[in-house]
Task: structure prediction
Amino acid sequence: MSQQDHSNKTEAATPKRRKDAAQRGQVAVSPDLTAAVVMLACGLGLRTLGPELARTFRSALATVLPHLTTNRWGVAEITVWSRWFLDVFLGTTAALLLLATGVSLLVTGLQAGLRFSTTPLELQWSRIDPVAGWSRLLSLDGFARGMQALLKLLIAAAVAGGLIWFNRVELRGRSRGTLLNAIDAAWEAGGTLMVALAAGALALALADFLFRRYRFEQELRMSRQEVLDEHKEDQGDPQLRSQRRSRQRDAASRKALQSVPQATMVVTNPTHISVALQYRHGQQGAPRVLAKGKGRLALRIREIATQHGVPILERKPLARALYQLAPVGHEIPAELYYAVAEILAIVYRRRRAA
Result:
């Protein structure tokens, strides 16, 4: 990605962009961090279970070694003893294998979250393109990964060499003992070495994770236009939303106008606002708003009312209050009962007089 593309991406990633990236399997995961924690867990496990594992392994060797001096070794004997020794070895190391598997899944899950995506498993030709592969190797990222691998190798060699140097006297003494004693020393030294290597690797792995997290966040950043486009996709184009709301208002207005002939009266402003009210004595608890409108809609309400002989009364304050407080299809608020009752009485008197 060019520097100009990066400079345009000034906005933080939206939740939708993060979700889409996760579905594609794009997450900030450091394999080095997983490997370092697994190594540390196995090293601690080896130190904790070391004596028991060493005893089991020594017992297996003590059983096998006396038979090595016999001359009766054929294919059958080798197969039986190899299978037995392999069973003992797997039984001895099963706890460490389970520990390594569990810790690996846990650390990876904590980094990436509990997500499942088949996209990373799909065949992508760009991954096996030799030109693209060489481009990645010769890129700045490839150089950084190479230097990081070299640094890890140097740290591992320094830690292992330092550990052997500081324990050289003890190791020299144990090397003069029996093979079984050497096994005990190997279990203990192996656990100590793994813990020491893991401690050094963990420091590098944490730095690698933070760097990957930073790069991941940078790659997810969006330009202002991308944020606007995503918002349009989620909410719809503003112009289309405005047109949709306009159509909904028109449909509601047409439906309301169809009910004007059933109104008991129309209260006006007189020209700007019209509110059509219906009241059926004994059937309704309070007058109900059938239609209301401003401007051209108010004029249309008055025209329909005139055509169907619905009384029209001018009450400016009441018309404004009804328009603001009473939704179409609902009864009028209680605070307007008295004012509406007065004009209803006028309508009823006119009907009786007619």
